[in-house]
């Protein structure tokens, strides 16, 4: 798996945005806002030699790219499946391109938080988004990022029923950008959120909708009963944190958005995703001894590898550096040596 | 008569990060990607160092903690610092005449 960034701009301003720091880094100066078809082709080469058959297009907001239909066509011509991450307010020219693709080769993951950006989004726009989901049908899958404890997922169920999109909801935990100041869900609130997810999983299952977990979830945020519920409802749970590989437009491989600027490397010609993943994994392996909680390093699930210990960005935020100037006079030591 | 006293100055390299853990203190060397886990007295001494206590204070605390005479506590501290230096967790800035 590797994500290809195709745009470093977005027309929303979500408080938890993982890519905000990347866009901040990328925007000033001469950097362009959109990937060129030529560079995109090089990135497809990278996927090809890495034997990755899915082109996962991320941003910013990829659908703002004026040549996105061309990029999609390029990827399809080379036999790639498409996974497009979008806020769902999709321009007509892009929608028309996506609409004709088969669900077997294209999925559009729509972030349903987008109505909660702190910025007023007109009712018409929300209606247009729902109409877009309807047009995408089985190609659309809804996603939701949890960044505060007072969320509700219930409004997603009627949208799934009405639009006939995929009967699944992908849940993400908003993680802190190590070098940024985005809104994120503090780990101490995880158990509270875990309860709410399990309760919602039951309601969703009643409508044949399953839940899928993105990275960073931890097993201990759910009670044993809630874990049973998730299992019973067919939720696709995982307690993982790995280098995703976000490939930037300027040719850097980033461990994942939260670690932008801290754990990344240039993508040399002829390298593969496996080699990059290994390299980025080596850059962070020492931190893997710990986890998001103080208790993680003693946890059975962490020690046996059944749980990653949560998001590495959270773990790394627990660590600090101190500038130390500790003076110790030698004569005292000499006296000690004579004792 | 003035007696010159040499002072050693220990610093913490930029690539050293640490965190408290339920099992002790975890110190990460980002350069070598090694994790060091401290337990017991080592945890306390590292913590005192990082809290900014002076050598005299740390020696006093160590003496109380281990129930040993103060000169022996100084000795203990000295050897602990040397051990951390050898593991690359601290660096010696160099001798200084004062």
Task: Please give a structural write-up.
The complex is a heterodimer of chains A (339) and B (98). By secondary structure, chain A is an alpha/beta fold. Helix content of chain A is 35%, strand content 14%. Chain A has a 10-stranded mixed sheet with strand order 7-6-5-4-3-2-1-8-9-10, covered by helices on one side. In chain A, helix 7 (190-206) runs parallel beside helix 8 (224-232). Chain A is globular. The model of chain A has no long low-confidence stretch (mean pLDDT 91). The longest helix of chain B is centred in the last third of the chain and has 17 residues, at 70-86. The mean pLDDT of chain B is 91. Classes of the chains: A alpha/beta (339), B alpha+beta (98). Chains A and B meet through helix 9, strand 11 and helix 12 of A and strand 1, strand 2, strand 3, strand 4 and helix 3 of B. Strand 11 of chain A pairs antiparallel with strand 1 (6-11) of chain B.
What's the helical proportion of residues of chain A? 25-40%
| Count of individual helical segments of chain B | 3
Task: Please state roughly what percent of the residues of chain A sit in beta strands, choosing from under 5%, 5-15%, 15-25%, 25-35%, 35-45% or over 45%.
Answer: 5-15%
The description of the largest β-sheet of chain A is: 10 strands, mixed
Please tell me the overall pLDDT of chain B: 91
Q: Rg of chain A from C-alpha positions?
A: 22 Å
Q: What portion of residues of chain B is helical?
A: 40-55%
Q: What class would the helix/strand composition of chain A place it in?
A: alpha/beta
Order of helices and strands of chain B: EEEEHHHE
- The residue-averaged pLDDT of chain A reads 91
Shape of chain B: globular
Number-wise, the strands of chain A total 11
Class based on secondary structure composition and strand pairing of chain B? alpha+beta
Report the C-alpha radius of gyration of chain B, rounded. 14 Å
Low-confidence stretches of chain A: none
User: Main sheet of chain B, how many strands, which sense, barrel?
Assistant: 3 strands, antiparallel
Low-pLDDT segments of chain B:
none
- Beta fraction of chain B: 25-35%
What are the secondary-structure elements of chain A, in order, as H or E?
EHHEHEHEHEHEHEHEEEHHHEH
């Amino acid at each position: 798996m590797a994500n290809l960034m195709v745009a470093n701009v977005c027309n929303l301003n979500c408080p938890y945005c993982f890519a905000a720091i990347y866009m901040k880094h990328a925007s000033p100066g001469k950097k362009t806002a959109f990937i060129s078809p030529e560079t995109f082709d090089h990135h497809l080469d990278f996927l090809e030699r890495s034997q990755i058959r899915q082109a996962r297009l991320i941003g910013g907001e990829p659908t703002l790219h004026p040549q996105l239909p061309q990029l999609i066509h390029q990827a399809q011509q080379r036999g790639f499946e498409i996974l497009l991450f979008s806020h769902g307010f999709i321009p007509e020219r892009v929608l028309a391109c996506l609409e004709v693709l088969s669900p077997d080769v294209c999925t559009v993951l729509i972030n349903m938080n987008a109505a909660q950006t702190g910025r007023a989004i007109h009712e018409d726009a929300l209606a247009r988004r729902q109409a877009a989901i309807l047009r995408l049908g089985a190609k659309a899958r809804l996603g939701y990022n949890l960044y505060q404890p007072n969320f509700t997922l219930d409004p997603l169920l009627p949208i799934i029923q009405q639009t006939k999109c995929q009967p699944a909801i992908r849940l993400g935990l908003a993680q802190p950008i190590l070098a940024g100041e985005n809104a994120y869900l503090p780990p101490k609130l995880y158990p509270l959120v875990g309860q709410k997810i399990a309760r919602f999983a039951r309601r969703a299952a009643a409508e044949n909708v399953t839940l899928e977990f993105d990275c960073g979830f931890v097993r201990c945020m759910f009670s044993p009963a809630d874990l049973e519920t998730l299992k019973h409802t067919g939720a696709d749970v995982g307690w993982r944190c790995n280098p995703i590989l976000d490939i930037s437009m300027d040719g850097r491989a980033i461990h994942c958005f939260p670690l932008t600027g801290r754990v990344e490397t240039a993508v040399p010609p002829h390298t593969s995703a496996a080699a990059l993943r290994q390299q980025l994994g080596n850059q962070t392996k020492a931190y893997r001894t710990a986890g998001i909680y103080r208790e993680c390093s003693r946890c059975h699930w962490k020690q046996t590898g059944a749980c990653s210990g949560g998001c590495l960005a959270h773990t790394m935020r627990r660590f600090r550096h101190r500038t130390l100037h500790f003076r110790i006079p030698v004569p005292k030591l000499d006296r000690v040596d004579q004792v | 008569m003035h007696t010159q006293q040499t002072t050693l100055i220990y610093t913490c390299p930029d690539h050293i990060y640490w965190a408290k853990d339920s099992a002790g203190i975890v110190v990460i060397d980002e350069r070598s990607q090694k994790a060091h886990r401290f337990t017991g007295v080592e945890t306390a001494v590292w913590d005192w160092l990082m809290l900014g206590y002076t050598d005299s204070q740390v020696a006093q605390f160590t003496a109380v903690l281990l129930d040993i005479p103060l000169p022996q506590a100084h000795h203990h501290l000295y050897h602990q610092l040397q051990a951390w230096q050898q593991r690359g967790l601290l660096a010696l800035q160099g001798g200084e005449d004062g």
